[in-house]
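Final report, section 2: Outcomes. Of the targets proposed, Response regulator transcription factor is the one most frequently requested by collaborating groups, and we therefore present its record in full.
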Amino acid sequence: MVRAGFRSLLDGEPGLQVVGEAADGEQAVEVVTRLAPDVTLMDVRMPVLDGLAATRRLVAAGVPTKVLVLTTFDLDEYVFEALRAGASGFLLKDAPAEELAAAIRVVASGDSLLAPGVTRRVIDAFVRRGPTGPAHQDPRLGLLTRREVEVLGLLARGLSNLDVAERLFVSEGTTKTHVSNVLAKLGLRDRVQAVIFAYENGVVVPGAAGEDPSYG
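The predicted structure is given below as C-alpha cells.
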C-alpha cells in the first residue's frame, strides 16, 4: 500500500516516472541493478536485507543510481550510516509530497544534495564519536591547493556555498568552482561525502566548530 501510494504520487509529477518496485532489500538490489534508475528511493528497515546493506551493495557494484534514503526513523545514526553506505540524500516519510519530488530532482541533478540541517547531523555524528586524528590521512588530500583545503574545511562545518563565499570574500560562482575542483580531485560524489572525508582525514576536528579549519 505504501509503495502504491508513492508510485501514484511520483507518477503524477512532471518528468518523474517510477520504473520499478521491490518488497525487500534483496529484491531492491536485483531490480536496481537490472533497471539502473536515475534515483532509488531506499527504505532503511526492510525484510531480508536492510536498506543500508542494500545501498552498500549497489555502491560496491558500481550501479549507476543515486540513492535517496526514505524512512520514518528520524535518528542521527541512520543519517550517518546511510551516508557512509553511499546514499546521496536522506528524507523522512512524513515530508510533504512536494518535498519528496524536489529531493528526487535534486539528487538526480547532482546539485547540493543535503540541506545544511542534515549536514549538521553528519557533523554531530562525528562529534559524538570523538576526535579522528589524521594518522592515516588520505594521500588525495595532497592534491588540493591551500584554498581548496580551506573550502573543504568550511563545507565540513556545514556552511553553504554562499556562506563560504562570504567568509572568503569571493563570489558564489568562484566558491562553486572550488567545490567542484575539490570533489573532482578527491573523487567524491557530492558535498556530503566531502564532509565525511574532511572529518576522517583531520581537515577539521570534531567539537572545534568555532575554530578555523586545521590543515594537518
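Confidence is low (pLDDT under 50) at residues 209-216.
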